[in-house]
C-alpha cells in the first residue's frame, strides 16, 4: 500500500505547493489526480517518486520509505516508474530497443516476448524498428509508457499520459493500458486534465485546489455530487444557477427543452457537437448551457425543465 502521510512541499520557502496531503492507495488500485493548471499535480507525482525533498511528512510504499534526492545519488524509487511530460527516450535507437533497455540481456527470449507484449499494448508493432527520433509526439509518449512498464513496476506514475495522442488512438490505448495494469496488479497514479481517464478507469479520484486535497472519493461519487463548481467543471460545462431562489449545479444534460413549463429561456447561441448541439440560452438573466438533439434558432423562446439532482 502507498501511504502519503501529511506531506508538505514547496519549491521555495515562501510558496507551498502541496499542503498537508494525506491519502492511501492499495496495490493494483488506480488513482487519478485532477485540478486546475499549476495546482500541483506533477509536483505530487514527483514527491511520490522521490524527486523532491519534502518539508514535512512521509511517504511509504509497503514498509519502504520514499527518500528524496538528498538521500539518493540517483533519485527515484526502484519499484516505481514515472513517465514525465518530457518522456526521456533514447532518440537514436529503435522503439524496441528503447523498451528493452530495462530488460535483462541474460534472458533474450523472455525480453523479446515482453517487448512484443508491450508493443501490442501501445499498438506500435509496425514501428518496432523505427528510430524514436522519427516518431511523432504522441508515438513517443506511447513508447515512454511501454518502457516504464517493461520491468513491471509495482506503482506507475503517469503525468498527462495521453496528452499528445489523438482521440481515436487515445481511447484504444486507455483501454489497453488500464486493462493491462489491472491484469498485472500494477497500481497507478495519473495526473490528468481529461475526465475520461478518471470516469472510466480510475478507482479513486483526488481533486486539488489551493494546494490542498479538496476531495478524494470514487470518481462516480465526485461526478454525481460535486462539492462545488470547480469540481463539476473538471467534467463538463457546468451551470451554477438560481432556480426558484435555490442555488444549484447542473450539467448540460440536466437541462431539457419541453413543450410547456413555467421556466422560459431565450436561445443565444448553438454549437454543433457531433451527436448533439450545445445550446447557450438566457434564463432569468443567467447564461446557461445545455445539450439538445437538434439546433435551435437564435432569439427563439423555449420552455425548460431541470433535473435537479446532479
Ligand atoms: N521546478 C520548479 N521550480 C519552482 N516552481 C515550480 C517548479 N515546478 C513547478 N513549479 C510551480 O509549482 C506549482 C505547481 O506546479 P505543477 O507542475 O505541479 O502543477 P500541475 O498541476 O501539474 O500543472 P499543469 O496541469 O499545468 O501541468 C506551479 O505554481 C508551478 O509554477
Automatic annotation (TrEMBL):
<dbReference type="InterPro" id="IPR003439">
    <property type="entry name" value="ABC_transporter-like_ATP-bd"/>
</dbReference>
<dbReference type="GO" id="GO:0005524">
    <property type="term" value="F:ATP binding"/>
</dbReference>
<dbReference type="InterPro" id="IPR050093">
    <property type="entry name" value="ABC_SmlMolc_Importer"/>
</dbReference>
<dbReference type="InterPro" id="IPR027417">
    <property type="entry name" value="P-loop_NTPase"/>
</dbReference>
<protein>
    <submittedName>
        <fullName>ABC transporter ATP-binding protein</fullName>
    </submittedName>
</protein>
<dbReference type="Pfam" id="PF00005">
    <property type="entry name" value="ABC_tran"/>
</dbReference>
<keyword id="KW-0547">Nucleotide-binding</keyword>
<dbReference type="InterPro" id="IPR003593">
    <property type="entry name" value="AAA+_ATPase"/>
</dbReference>
<dbReference type="InterPro" id="IPR017871">
    <property type="entry name" value="ABC_transporter-like_CS"/>
</dbReference>
<feature type="domain" description="ABC transporter">
    <location>
        <begin position="2"/>
        <end position="235"/>
    </location>
</feature>
<keyword id="KW-0067">ATP-binding</keyword>
<keyword id="KW-0813">Transport</keyword>
<dbReference type="GO" id="GO:0016887">
    <property type="term" value="F:ATP hydrolysis activity"/>
</dbReference>
